[in-house]
Structure formats: C-alpha cells, structure tokens
C-alpha cells in the first residue's frame, strides 16, 4: 500500500527494522521478528506488542519502503506491505518506473519532490477505485486499508471509525483496536505473540450496554450468541457506545423490521453515502432525541444547540438550560430542576427584538393571542421563517354532542370542573396559551389533577405535538378520507369487524354518528400508513380520542401516538410494546425487588402488562378514570404509563406476594382496577363504568385515580426521560433476538420431524442458513432477498434463500463440493426443491436436501414425475433420485437385496406414478455417465468407480440390445454395444478424461444412427446397486458436524469469491429451458 510521504529518522528505527534491500534512492525493510523462526525471540514479541498497543492506526505492516537521498539523514516512508509479495511488487515498480528518471535531476530536493508527487498521484489513482475519497483524513485512510487487509471482509463493507481499546478475556486485558463498520464490530490485538481477531455482526448482538464493576470503572458489554464481550477505553467511551448503539439499531431494523426501516429516508441516505462518518450518525441520533423529547415531527433536524438563560417573567427568574434550533422550531429545556420548557414554532413568531447586542440577548414575541408572553433568550437564530397558522374546520367532539354541559344547573362535580377550568385559564394568562406556552412544574400538577372536559381535546393536541402536524398539513385529512372511503383491503375488513366493539357501552358508539367517525379516522390512517394499516387496540384508543377531539384532531392524535409517542407498537409483531414491557420489568427489578423475587419463573408481568401499554390502561380502567391516564400520557409520554404501572403493583404488593400462580395475581389486579374511581368526573352516571359496579365487588376499598396518579409521580417521578429512552434502545435488541429465537425454535420443531440430524446439528445448520440470507443483504440496502423477508409470514417462510445462496451453502456442506459438476448438481437440486418456481426455498426444503428421512423421501419425488416431455427435467429427476437415495443409506451396512425388494413393492403400489416416467434416451444417458465420472474424481477408489461405471453402462446397453433383439431380431444394434465395450476399457488404464470423451463421442455417433435406444429408471437403479464400489461410495458416512464447523469459518470468505451473475444467469436459463418460468 502506498503511503503519504512522511519523514522518518532512520537511526531511531534501526532496532525495530531489518534491512532487506537497498539502492541509491530506496530502502526496503522488514519488521524485526516477522518471518523469523520462533517469531524473532523476545525482541520480536516485544516489537509486535508495541506495534499493536502504541501504533496510531493498527498493527504496523511487517514491510516498508523508505525513500532516501545521498548525504541526507532524513528518510521518507512511501509504502508498506502485509506480505513479501506485496512489498516486492511495489519495489519492482519503483525500479522499473522511477529509478531511471531520478538520474536526470540535479538536486536532492528535486528528487524528493518528484518522488513525493509520484506517490501522491498513485494514492489518488488508487482512491478512484475504492469508496474512500481523497478528502478523507490520511490517518483514516491507512486505518481503512489495514482494516480491509486484517479482517478480509468484502470491499463493500464500509468502515465508519476505529478506536483504541482493551478487550477483556477474563481478568486479563488485551490492548488493541476496535473497528466499527456498517455490518460488523471487529477487534484486533497482538500481544506478546498472541493474536486476537474478533468479528461480530450487528444483527447477532442481543445485549449492548455500558457497565461497571470492581475492576472496570466503565466498559461496554456486548453479548452475541450467548457469549459476553467487554471493551474498555480511556477516551471516547460515550461516543463509542452511542455509535455502536446506532449501528446495531440500524442493522436490526434493516434486517428484522424492514417495514419501519423502508420508510426512514434518512437512514437510506446515510447508507447510500460512499463514505460514512461518525458525525452523520451522531447528528441523526441527536435529531431523533430532539424531536422525541419536544414531540416535534420526525422530519425535524437539529441544527444548533446553545447553552442559555431563559427569562421566566411570571417568576422573575432566569432558567438555565439549552436552546435547540431546527428548521421550523426553537425549543428550550431547563437543566436546573425548574422543569421549564418552551416550544416556539417559527410560524408563530410575530416579532424579534435584540435587547442588548453586547450581552447577546434577544426577545421573541410568539403566539396567536395577546396574552402570550415574550421569550427572552441570549442567542438569536440565523434565520426566522414567518408562516400563517391555517385552521381547518371539522366536526365537533362527540362528548360535546352527547354530554353537553348545563351551565345553569351546576352540581358539586360541575362546580369542581369549573374550578379546574379557572385554574387553567389563570395558567394560560401567566404562561401563555398555545404551542409556545411555558410548561413548568405547575403545568404538570394541573395535568395530574385531570384536565377539564372542555379543554381536554385542545390540550391533548398541544402536548402530543399533533397540533404541529395538523398546522403543517391543512386539508390532508379531508383528502385522505375521500381517497380511502370505499377501498376494500384486509385492514378495512378488520376495521369493520371491530367498530361495534369500541366502547360499546358509550352512547356515542351506539349510533351511526360515532361509528361513522371512527370508521373514517381508522380507514384514513390505514390508507396513510399501509405498513401499520390497522392493529387491534387502535379502535379503543381512537374511540376515546373522538370523545374529546374533533374528527381531524383525533386523526392527528392517532398519528402522533402510533408514529412518534409509541413507535412500533401497532405493527404485526408489536415490537414497541414488547420493548416497553422489557423496560417495565427492568424498572420493577430496580424499584420492587421483592415482587421480582416472588414472581421469578412466572409469566405474570408479560401477560398482564401488555394491554396496559397497548391501550394506555383504557381496557382495564373505567372510562372516566382512564382519560386521566391519557392526560398524563400526552404530557409525559410513556414515562407516565411506566410510573402508573409501578404504583399499581406497589399498591397491591402485599396481595401479590401471597399469590401462588398467575391466575390468582391477575384476579387481584382486576379487582383493584374495578375499584378505581374518579370522584371528580362530571360524566353522567349512565356513562361512568365505575358507578355501575355492584356492591358484590365492594370488598376492595375504592381508589381515586387522581390520588393514584399523584402517588406515582411522587414515588417514581425521578425516572428520567433519557433513562427510559436508553433502556428502550438496550431492550430493543434483546426483544428482537428473543423473537428470532422463538422463530428458530418453531422452525426446528417442524423440520426435525423430517430430517435425521441431531438437534444441535440442526440448530447450527439453521444458523448457517440464516446467516447466508443476511450476508446477501449486508452490502445491498435494497436487496431482493431482503424484500422476501416478512415477519408476518409463517415461521418456515420468514427466511428463504435464492439459487445463488443455495449454491454457496452446497459448496460448503456437500460431500461432492470437489466435483467439477458441483454447480450443476446444486442447480438441479435447487430446481427440484423450488416447487413453486419462485426462485426461493425455505429451511425445511434446504435441510431435507442434506438429510431427509428415508420414509419420507419418495413422496417428494413422486410429485416431480409429471413434468411433461422436458428431457432436462427428466435427467434432473433421475440423477437426483439416485444421488439422494444413496446419500440416505450412508450410515450402517445396507442390505441391497432388501432394498431391491422394497423398491419392487413400491413399484407395485405406485405403478400409476412410475409408469409415467419417460425412459432415458442415449444423449441423456451419456450426460448422466459424465456426471458420475466427475462426481468420483479424487476419490480413493476412483479407479474402481470408473470401472464400475463402464460395467454398468455396458450392462445396460447389452440388456437393451437383448430386449431389442427379442422385439425385432433383425435390428442392427451390435455397433453400439461394441462402442460401449471400448469405452469400458479406457478407465481401467487410468485414462479417465480420454474415456469420458471417447464414450461421449463414439456413443453420440452411434446414437445418431439409431434414435430409439432408451433405458428405464428401474434398469439404471438395479444396475448401479449391483456394483459394490457404488454402494461403498454412497454409503460412506460424512460427519455433518465437521462440515458445519468448517462452513462457519469459511462462509464469510466464500461471499467474496463467489460469482453471483454467472450462476444466476445459468439458473434462469435452465428454468427457461424447462418451461418453469
């Protein structure tokens, strides 16, 4: 590898380098200890250790070339090499292309300038053919080249960055370098002669977290395939962990959760870049955190962050925090415990005033009403965009239609409701009203008490951020309704089925008004987001939204919940809900350890809490109490649900500790939820579910929802948003890997009934199969194989491989991988397994090729007998039936006579299937014989096998000749038998290749004279079974475990050598020949 010329003081390096070659202008050196017997002794080991620990990029290359000029003590490093062949190639190039030119220069400075320019030109030329760019830092370029050479990954693998770190094996640290690329986490270390090379694919990681213990103050814990790996570093550990988290998340989403990945255009842009830089990942992560924290549209990109003070006018206090600026918003969040935050849409900015230029203070006056207060910051955005705040008219909220408030007859509950409204009006007067209002601790206190009925829809829209979505897309909902109504899809069918099940006790959904509104909202959303479409529990949530919000507002609230506040909740595998369940269980272990110890081994938490998260407690609490929970959810997000769940468990702790099984614990919680009331609810008794409870359930004391929520805030309010998001990221990997493990268990349970592999071997085989599927997706974002992966399909169909991938696995696992016809055999086998002609096979089909049980073998092939008149298909079925039959009798001694009797019985039982099998003509038989010749090449009994082939072919032809004579005694057929006898003698003399060609040539010449020669399938099989050499070859046992271990080590390298285009073309051509496409 050519290097950017750098000065080297040679006298300080003589102890580390040994001279190999030199001339007047160049020196070739070898690193001490490399290539020497015994590793160069202690000096060589020390040098190798220094290279791995102290070098700024990675292990030092063992060879290098220096440029020198006479009478100069300064040398310039211009090339390095990992092998003698590589460095010799560079040396020879210098001698042939540079040495002759240097003699024309007059001064040493001119010579050095020319050499440096020449080397830089070579580096630039090399960069054109790779994905590295000239503007990349030189140090990164060197690290990149060494990364490629050290790990041998395909050229398409993009290195993101690398860090110096220690890898802990037990209590011993190994200093080395951690490389982070798009698909792999790699580590390399060389310490006192011990080399450690580690490659972990991101999709195999089930746990990624920062940990600390007695030995390590802080380290990164990576768990993959049940193995734990620990990495520690002095610098950049937070940066490293964030980048690892991003790369692992992207890999998991792309490979396991493609329905959300395909809609994320930012990710696709990042992976399409030829050069990936850590800042692009960091910026995206910060933008995601920014938009999630402030409930902004996902498209918002964080541009700038500044520390500042915000003047809070109603408290006369400067709140210290951070100001975040994006294209359309200016946001502030305090960091001094005052819980003050502000969101200012630039569309609402009315005035900008610089109060004191020298103190860098400015004032923004924002809002849609005169009561809004000015916001006083110490930084000013570079550009402010003024936009109109358009409003769209929609239907009224259902609650105002079915339960209008009577202003004249105010009972005590209505008076309390009016007092709540007055408290909020005071808050609006002090802190502003609208998106840009100040949000403080007092705001949360009022939310905990319950939002008034009249303000609930408006504040839900405000706190969820749905108001921003609606303001930026006027008329969008009306357009969706027009497009979606009348459509007939699976989602619309499910919606129609669930419409009457949505709050059926509420009068609003006992009429066409409520049902029609619910239908329009759900159908419009399914049309907007077909990846989610419709999921159960969406109808319950949308029903509550329609009670308090207008129809269009309810739609945007649903968008905010499904796509931003509860990500991945409402997809086919409800991954988001499972992730939050795992977060909830982690919080239980921290805050309620007694309950965790008692419930160990029970599925209580996962079975009970799922509905809490999916429906925000609406399905378990009375409606008048559930809406208070929804209030807190829209203000605090999932944190409110987690806090309430912990409070519920703590409230019932004593009873749960006495439970002996899940059913008893569920009963305890159901009784508790039935006892939850909302004493301040203004809803009429006919609507309140809690008021309809009978006295039979009155043994449990009543619990007010406001008190329960307040207690959850007091006890668990210290749970931070940042901690919840961190736990979400950490548990997401675990949840997805758990789902994948479940898929594997179901697949193996089904497949194990049809194959003869041990459970461990079948498990390893599945991992190879799945890994081959992923390897085709690593370096192609839009891989066609990836498009076929669908988690909603049956377990067996979730992972399938194409013809090319099957070829690679056959080369790695088949005992005939050395055969010259191995590609043809793989192609035939794949075509046989691809029953639907989709170009894909699943794991069951793949494993049956390698080890189907004999009792099930024939049923597969009888389906292949009705193939028309295609000679290629005929050859395929005949040869494969022979090959796979022999592979099944590979263990233990085989009774040939018993098999012949079994075969005869099968012919009698299934005569109607066998009789339709065409006879093999001469050209097909010759091709079949050539395949056998190639199959036996390199076998210890190769000579005997060739003789057996000659005997079988001669016998078959003589049998056919006798049959022809019996039918037509005057028919001239002797010449063909003679030709076969000649071909039978050639293999016995050791001239296998000549025999094959002579058999084909002479046979073909004779066949042209007589086109009526043919052989029955039974004749070929019986003749082959009469040759002991054939039987020994096919019954030779092959240890599948050894081949699997070898395949695991070679699978990644095989991807770099395989030629996909040629084999895929041959597959489609052969499919076209047989008329299957």
Automatic annotation (TrEMBL):
Q: Name one GO molecular function term.
A: GTPase activator activity
Residue numbers spanned by region Disordered: 968-1005
Asked if the keyword 4Fe-4S belongs to this entry, the reply reads: no
Parts of the chain that traverse the membrane: none
A Gene Ontology CC term for this entry?
cytosol
Query: Which of UniProt's keywords are assigned here?
Result: Cytoplasm, GTPase activation, Repeat
Q: Where is the composition biased (Polar residues)?
A: 968-983
Q: Does the keyword Cytoplasm apply?
A: yes
Q: Any idea where the Rab-GAP TBC domain is?
A: 450-637
What biological-process GO terms show up in the record?
Answer: glomerular filtration
According to its UniProt record, what is one Pfam family this protein matches?
GRAM
- Give compartment(s): Cytoplasm, Cytosol
What function does the entry list? Answer: Involved in vesicular recycling, probably as a RAB11B GTPase-activating protein.
Q: What name appears for this protein in its UniProt entry?
A: TBC1 domain family member 8B
């Amino acid at each position: 590898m050519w290097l950017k010329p750098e000065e080297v003081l040679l006298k300080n390096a003589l102890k580390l380098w040994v001279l190999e070659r030199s001339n007047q202008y160049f020196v070739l050196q070898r690193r001490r200890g490399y290539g020497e017997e015994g590793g160069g002794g202690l000096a060589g080991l020390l040098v190798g250790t220094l290279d791995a620990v102290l070098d700024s990029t990675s292990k030092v290359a063992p060879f290098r070339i220096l440029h020198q000029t006479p009478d100069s003590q300064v040398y310039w490093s211009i090339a390095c090499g990992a092998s003698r062949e590589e460095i010799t190639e560079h040396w020879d190039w210098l001698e042939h292309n540079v040495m002759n030119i240097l003699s024309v220069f007059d001064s040493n400075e001119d010579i050095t300038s020319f050499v440096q320019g020449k080397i830089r030109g070579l580096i630039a030329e090399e960069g054109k053919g790779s994905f590295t760019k000239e503007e990349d830092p030189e140090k990164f370029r060197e690290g990149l080249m060494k990364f490629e050479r050290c790990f041998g990954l395909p050229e398409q693998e993009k290195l993101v960055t690398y860090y110096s770190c220690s890898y802990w094996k037990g209590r011993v640290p190994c200093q080395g370098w951690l490389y982070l690329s798009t698909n792999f986490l790699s580590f390399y270390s060389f310490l006192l002669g011990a080399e450690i090379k580690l490659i972990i694919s991101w999709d195999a990681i089930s746990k990624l977290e920062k940990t600390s213990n007695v030995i390590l103050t802080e380290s990164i814990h990576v768990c993959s395939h049940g193995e734990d790996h620990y990495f520690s570093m002095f610098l950049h550990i937070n940066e490293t962990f964030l980048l690892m988290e991003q790369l692992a998340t992207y890999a998991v989403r792309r490979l396991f959760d493609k329905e959300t990945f395909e809609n994320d255009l930012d990710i696709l842009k990042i992976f399409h870049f030829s050069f990936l830089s850590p800042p692009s990942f960091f910026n995206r992560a910060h933008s995601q955190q920014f938009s999630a924290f402030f409930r902004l549209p996902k498209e918002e990109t964080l541009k700038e962050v500044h520390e500042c003070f915000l003047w809070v006018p109603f408290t006369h206090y400067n709140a210290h925090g951070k100001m975040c600026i994006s294209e359309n918003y200016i946001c502030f969040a305090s960091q001094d415990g005052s819980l003050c935050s502000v969101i200012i849409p630039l569309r609402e900015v009315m005035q900008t005033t610089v109060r004191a230029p020298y103190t860098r203070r400015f004032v923004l006056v924002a809002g849609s009403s005169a009561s809004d207060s000015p916001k006083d910051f110490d930084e000013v955005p570079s550009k402010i965009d003024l936009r109109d705040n358009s409003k769209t008219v929609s239907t009224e909220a259902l609650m105002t239609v079915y339960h209008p408030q009577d202003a004249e007859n105010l009972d005590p509950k209505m008076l309390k409701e009016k007092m709540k409204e007055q408290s909020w009006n005071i808050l609006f007067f002090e802190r502003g009203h609208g998106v840009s209002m100040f949000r403080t601790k007092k705001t949360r206190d009022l939310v905990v008490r319950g939002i008034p009925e009249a303000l609930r829809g408006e504040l839900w829209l405000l706190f969820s951020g749905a108001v921003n979505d609606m303001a930026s897309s006027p008329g969008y909902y009306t357009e969706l309704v027009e497009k979606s109504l009348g459509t007939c899809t699976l989602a619309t069918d499910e919606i129609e089925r669930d419409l009457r099940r949505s709050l059926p006790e509420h009068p609003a959904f006992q009429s066409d008004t409520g049902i029609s509104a619910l239908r329009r909202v759900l159908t419009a959303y399914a049309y907007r987001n077909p990846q989610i479409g419709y999921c159960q529990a969406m109808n319950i949530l949308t029903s509550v939204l329609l009670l308090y919000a207008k129809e269009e507002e309810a739609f945007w609230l649903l968008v905010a919940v499904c796509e931003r506040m509860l990500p991945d909740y409402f997809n086919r595998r409800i991954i988001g809900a499972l992730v939050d369940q795992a977060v909830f269980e982690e919080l239980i272990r921290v805050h309620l350890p007694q309950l965790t110890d008692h419930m160990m081994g029970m599925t209580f938490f996962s079975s009970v809490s799922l509905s809490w998260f999916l429906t925000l407690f609406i399905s378990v609490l009375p409606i008048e109490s559930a809406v208070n929970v929804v209030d807190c959810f829209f203000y605090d997000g999932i944190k409110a649900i987690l806090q309430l769940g912990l409070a519920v468990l703590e409230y019932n702790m004593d009873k749960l500790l006495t439970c002996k099984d899940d059913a008893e614990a569920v009963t305890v919680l159901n009784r508790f939820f039935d006892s939850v009331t909302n004493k301040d609810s203004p809803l009429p008794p006919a609507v309140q579910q809690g008021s309809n409870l009978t006295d039979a359930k009155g043994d449990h004391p009543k619990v007010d929802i406001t008190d329960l929520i307040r207690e959850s805030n007091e006890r668990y309010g210290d749970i931070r948003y940042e901690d919840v998001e961190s736990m979400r990221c950490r548990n997401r990997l675990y949840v997805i890997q758990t789902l994948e493990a479940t898929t594997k268990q179901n697949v193996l349970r089904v497949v194990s009934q049809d194959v003869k592999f041990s459970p461990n071997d079948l498990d390893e085989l599945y991992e190879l199969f799945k890994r081959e599927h992923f390897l085709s997706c690593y370096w192609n974002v839009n891989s066609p194989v990836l498009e076929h992966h669908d988690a909603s399909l049956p377990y067996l169909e979730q992972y399938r491989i194409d013809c090319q991938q099957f070829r690679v696995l056959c080369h790695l696992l088949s005992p005939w991988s050395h055969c010259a016809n191995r590609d043809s055999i793989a192609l035939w086998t794949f075509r046989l397994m691809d029953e639907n002609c989709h170009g894909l096979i699943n794991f069951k089909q793949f494993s049956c090729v390698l080890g189907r049980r004999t009792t099930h073998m024939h049923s597969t092939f009888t389906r292949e007998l009705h193939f028309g008149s295609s000679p290629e298909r005929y050859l395929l079925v005949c040869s494969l039936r022979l090959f796979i039959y022999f592979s099944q009798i590979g263990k233990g001694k085989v009774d040939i006579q018993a098999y012949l009797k079994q075969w005869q019985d099968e012919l009698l039982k299934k005569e109607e299937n066998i009789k339709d099998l065409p006879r093999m003509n001469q050209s097909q038989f010759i091709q079949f014989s050539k395949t056998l010749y190639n199959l036996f090449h390199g076998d210890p009994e190769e000579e005997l096998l060739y003789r057996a082939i000659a005997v079988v072919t001669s016998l078959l032809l003589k049998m056919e000749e006798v049959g022809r004579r019996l039918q037509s005694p005057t028919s001239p057929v002797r010449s063909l038998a003679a030709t076969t006898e000649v071909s039978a003698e050639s293999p016995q003399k050791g001239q296998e290749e000549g025999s094959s060609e002579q058999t084909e040539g002479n046979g073909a010449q004779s066949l042209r004279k007589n086109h009526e020669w043919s052989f029955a399938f039974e004749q070929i099989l019986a003749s082959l079974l009469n040759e002991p050499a054939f039987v020994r070859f096919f019954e030779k046992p092959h240890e599948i475990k050894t081949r699997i271990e070898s395949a695991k080590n070679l699978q990644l390298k095989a991807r770099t050598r395989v030629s996909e285009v040629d084999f895929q073309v041959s597959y489609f051509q052969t499919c076209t020949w047989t008329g299957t496409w």
